[in-house]
Hints:
Elements: H1 2-9, H2 17-23, H3 29-41, H4 45-55, H5 58-76, H6 81-98, H7 101-110, H8 114-121
Amino acid sequence: MFDYWKKCLIQVRLVDQALAEAMQVRSTPEEWKSRGFKLLREATYLMATMCFERARYDYGEKLAKVSAFKADADLKHVLSPQEASHLRRQAAEIYEAIGVADSAVECFYMLKEYEKAAVSRLPKKEEV
C-alpha cells in the first residue's frame, strides 16, 4: 500500500539544510509574546519563558517563571513542605515585584505569613 502512495500520489524528497532554511520564517517579538501567553495558559512554563525571552518581554518572562515556582510548590506541598515553602516564598516576592498582588497574598497566606499578606494588599505610595 505504501508503494502505491509513494509511486502515484506523493513526492518523496530529502530535506537538505538549504531547503530547511528556506522554509523557516522569522517570528516577530509580538508573535513570540503571543505564543508565550498561549503556553502560559497551557501551563507549559519553561517553553513560555523561552518565548518571552525571545520577545524580550521581561514581565511575561517573570510571570512564567513565578508560575512555575508556584506550580512546583503546589506539587511538593505534601511530600516536601520545606522546599514547597521556599518556592512559595520566592513566588510571593516575585509576584510582589511585578505587581500581581492577589497572587502574592495567596502565597503569603499559604505560608501563614499573614502580616506580609496584609501589607501586599495595601496600595503602594505611588498608587495613593
